[in-house]
Specification:
Length: 429
């Protein structure tokens, strides 16, 4: 029988090894996330939005489709009924992938809707991220599987593939019958219910997509499904011929973890570099690397109105807020306007450029989205859509407090030290 000293030595050794691995992974990812400095530079479009979309697609290795319609849905009060109604209308297939599927009233409604669809003969495929959806109850899982839903975990931790566990899917995708899609920032949990009317109900944005661009959302789901199951759902009915539904030019950004820069990272770089008048950003997890800070300052220096809306005291990841603060000094010194949303957690991931181009999706401004996660977003050229999003942004600013350099100077020393530490481990937050 091993002695107490031997057991203690083993425990200490394991802790040291674990700490060393954490430091190594954190340092490696931080280094990867700083590899976009050759991309973030000067304006690309100078008012030519069509050229911008072509440049964006080329830089992100994606393609642009015309003839789309994008319907903006604000907060759970609009988002959840629209998604549930579309699920109820499904005729042959539902493909769903999410980072967060929790337990509660909203998850139960979705479980009931998915189960009802499966029982009436609809093929229901679902991918839940093992890390983000760890709060889902076994009862909900059993209900959906018993009804005929094919539910799979994205990268559950296993001893032979533990290194992959840190690479999550952060995508939020719903595709019904291959013809209608939803994507954005919303997870399936009670926090997203309501209308951002209390700290318990978050502020977020989702979109419904109709038209040829639905195929790009479906492709992102197929990517997740293939990773989770090793199978490819490529039947013709999942990728039907899609007819024009509107006049919006759209580029779907499908991003996967890579050693160099990801599509998510490059798309954000192009959005910043392309701004010539206005660059308005709302992002829940805003921890820009030094090159992105420089790019935002450069945009301001060339006359762009740069505003960034962030969560305030209601933040589900306080360490991320601390890491974010570490970047605020240089941004404020460069004239970038920072605002903290006060009523509740703001979970949006939105970029609006020059009143004509809008990015909405799951992509955060942090190393995890840029280097570790599978992400998806849509970038749309549509002035009416951009105007709608700018109006919502201005409305959110009315409930936000502007951050000043004095706010940072007033922080106690221990707060500043915590901010530095959180910034260093930002890739693991």
């Amino acid at each position: 029988m091993p002695s107490h000293s031997m057991i203690l030595a083993i425990v200490v050794s394991l802790l040291v090894i674990g700490a060393a691995a954490f430091v190594y992974v954190t340092a490696s990812v931080n280094a990867e996330a700083n590899r976009e400095d050759a991309i973030v530079s000067v304006p690309l479009i100078a008012g030519n939005a069509d050229a911008f979309m072509r440049a964006l697609a080329g830089a992100a290795s994606q393609h642009v489709t015309d003839g789309n319609k994008i319907t903006v849905l604000q907060n759970g009060v609009e988002i959840f009924p629209a998604m549930l109604e579309t699920i109820a209308s499904a005729r042959h297939s539902i493909h769903f992938s999410t980072f967060i599927f929790s337990s509660g009233e909203i998850p139960q409604k979705f479980a009931d809707a998915f189960s009802a669809a499966a029982k009436r003969g609809v093929e229901v495929r679902m991918v839940f991220d093992k890390s983000g959806s760890k709060g889902v109850s076994q009862a909900l899982m059993d209900q959906m599987r018993k009804a005929g839903c094919k539910v799979n975990w994205f990268r559950p931790i296993r001893w032979y593939s533990w290194a992959k566990y840190n690479h999550r899917t952060h995508r939020k995708l719903l595709v019904v019958d291959g013809t209608v899609a939803f994507t954005g920032g919303v997870g399936i949990a009670d926090e997203w219910d309501g209308n951002a009317d209390s700290p318990a109900h978050w502020r977020d944005t989702h979109v419904r997509v109709d038209g040829p661009a639905v195929a790009s959302v479906q492709a992102a789901f197929v990517d997740n499904w293939n990773e989770a199951t090793g199978k490819l759902p490529i039947d013709e009915k999942y990728f039907p011929t899609l007819t024009p539904a509107g006049e919006t030019l759209m580029c779907g950004i499908q991003s996967n973890p890579v050693i160099a820069t990801s599509a998510a990272q490059r798309s954000m770089a192009v959005l910043i570099a392309g701004a010539s008048k206005r660059l308005w950003i709302a992002n829940a997890y805003f921890v820009p690397t030094r090159p992105f800070v420089q790019a935002l300052r450069a945009a301001k220096a060339r006359g762009v109105d740069v505003k960034i809306l962030l969560p305030g005291r209601y933040h589900d990841q306080p360490a991320v807020r601390r890491a974010s603060r570490r970047t605020w000094g240089p941004l404020l010194a460069g004239g970038v306007e920072l605002y903290e949303y006060e009523p509740t957690m703001i979970h949006c991931k939105i970029v609006i450029v020059d009143g004509s181009v809008t990015s909405i999706g799951s992509i955060n401004f942090d190393p995890r989205s840029f280097a570790l996660n599978a992400e998806f977003g849509v970038v749309a050229l549509d002035r009416a859509l951009a105007k709608q999003m700018e109006d919502a942004f201005v409305d959110d600013l009315r409930s936000a407090r502007r951050v000043t350099a004095e706010d940072l100077r007033r922080l106690p020393v221990h707060e500043r030290m915590l901010n530095i530490f959180c910034y260093w481990i930002r890739a693991q937050l």
